[in-house]
Amino acid sequence: xxxxxxxxxxxxxxxxxxxxxxxxxxxxxxxxxxxxxxxxxxxxxxxxxxxxxxxxxxxxxxxxxxxxxxxxxxxxxxxxxxxxxxxxxxxxxxxxxxxxxxxxxxxxxxxxxxxxxxxxxxxxxxxxxxxxxxxxxxxxxxxxxxxxxxxxxxxxxxxxxxxxxxxxxxxxxxxxxxxxxxxxxxxxxxxxxxxxxxxxxxxxxxxxxxxxxxxxxxxxxxxxxxxxxxxxxxxxxxxxxxxxxxxxxxxxxxxxxxxxxxxxxxxxxxxxxxxxxxxxxxxxxxxxxxxxxxxxxxxxxxxxxxxxxxxxxxxxx
Length: 317
Fold this sequence. Notes:
Elements: E1 2-12, H1 15-27, E2 34-37, E3 58-65, H2 70-89, E4 96-106, H3 107-113, E5 121-122, E6 127-131, E7 143-147, H4 159-171, E8 177-181, H5 187-194, E9 199-204, H6 207-219, E10 227-231, E11 242-248, H7 251-257, E12 265-277, H8 281-290, E13 294-301, E14 304-310
Parallel strand pairs: 6-7, 8-9, 8-11, 9-10, 11-12
Antiparallel strand pairs: 1-3, 1-4, 2-3, 5-6, 12-14, 13-14
């Protein structure tokens, strides 16, 4: 498959906030992920080994399939950026200048292009995410997740994934069962496995992501009898009940998924969801409470939200 790289280079008064807003524009297209560059990036664990220079500009890059819908997507992208600029500059709230560049890629180039954005990062006090092509020596007590996102979304460094991993670390107990809806690269399954889950299931509607997740689990030495990764639509076709269920996907998809969670969440189990921008937080919270969930906690990071909720009552049969 051919791909088109759409790279938005920008300058703004509040670059972090604008970076998130541009990323949300790309996510609204249903893309598997975006790449964010910043000249303010802090050195990672293996920065000295890296051959990649500090970026000269702030940028957000998304990847579109090169097909008949591409021209319309580019038109919408450009219109959304024009609207964003006008919104930010109303009342001099935030200056924004930008350029959009397009570049053709083949599938291999698309997969390899992620590597330049991906460094070793410590996600929590114990958990470190390390790209499989970088060397890292863990400190005593650290849990290292070796990851190669390939053609799937989920490097683990995005705020939504970082928050999910932190909540998994807090709420998962050894011997728990774990379900990840929209598993992508399998990063949340890896975290659950290394934190002591006894059995894990991952579901993704992208067959490529299913293959990537399986390879990452194998690369990390997770026994095949401990996990299942399948192609599917949300929680449809899932049987059994799980101690922990995660969904790091778009807010609108979470709204649909919430209706399917009660039958597959064990009594006193925990549902962790993210991919939620702050303006949509109340929408998700209200839907959860309306379906009988008790909100355990909400976490925010860079204008993103993650929620942990539970249902104390047994699900109806």
